[in-house]
Amino acid sequence: xxxxxxxxxxxxxxxxxxxxxxxxxxxxxxxxxxxxxxxxxxxxxxxxxxxxxxxxxxxxxxxxxxxxxxxxxxxxxxxxxxxxxxxxxxxxxxxxxxxxxxxxxxxxxxxxxxxxxxxxxxxxxxxxxxxxxxxxxxxxxxxxxxxxxxxxxxxxxxxxxxxxxxxxxxxxxxxxxxxxxxxxxxxxxxxxxxxxxxxxxxxxxxxxxxxxxxxxxxxxxxxxxxxxxxxxxxxxxxxxxxxxxxxxxxxxxxxxxxxxxxxxxxxxxxxxxxxxxxxxxxxxxxxxxxxxxxxxxxxxxxxxxxxxxxxxxxxxxxxxxxxxxxxxxxx
Length: 331
Known about the structure:
63% helix; 0% strand; mainly alpha
């Protein structure tokens, strides 16, 4: 074999050095860039869903609120602030808004008190308390449609179990789903799901330091004084959260429609007046009357009212809500 026939195993020129790039010479992505990329990759599903399922529908509803669109006819007109002007001059809107405010003022405190009371009970070291926690929380996972149908069957005037019980004691059957009793059935359906509040309150109770309770007992404080002076202040962030979310849920409830005798969206106009809340007024405008523009204006007014009420709650509770934060964490 001659020298010319010897195979060349590698190149040593500039081209060969360019091909053999070491890992140290490759472009590296900084740790900050990697964290940013991971953040946007993980949050992309939520961001896309928020844009498509929240921002776009809200923008569309805002545009509808300035029109006379009925959802079917291609003929509609732009009315500007006409729907909002009619809204503020409509007595039915103000009456339904007042009933909604009264319902929120009643249902939210009762739900919080009931949930906190149940949390205190199941937080005690008793046998099978895990079973009790599960049983008390189970009603909270039942869908609202199931709750509505169940209460509608229980309080039916002709075949309901409630009238079956009271007639055994010689009383006359009551029209539970009509005025003036319909509001109480609605309130009971809300308290039925107090297990949700119980679970959140239970988590807050277990976060209260036991040392504070022991120090209070050493100082001679009773159970009620300890609960009022130590437990409740430390639970104030949890109670604030439950108040805000409870108010938002109460003004948006559709339970009166599920309890209606008709049981359909068209039957919203036949609801008892005590259960004709603001959302029922919105439903009647959307589905019974086909006034999409006016109903969209009602929803946007409700959205603004929720923002105002939430801001007021935070404003007036800022001095009574105590956050258990480590002072060193603020530095």
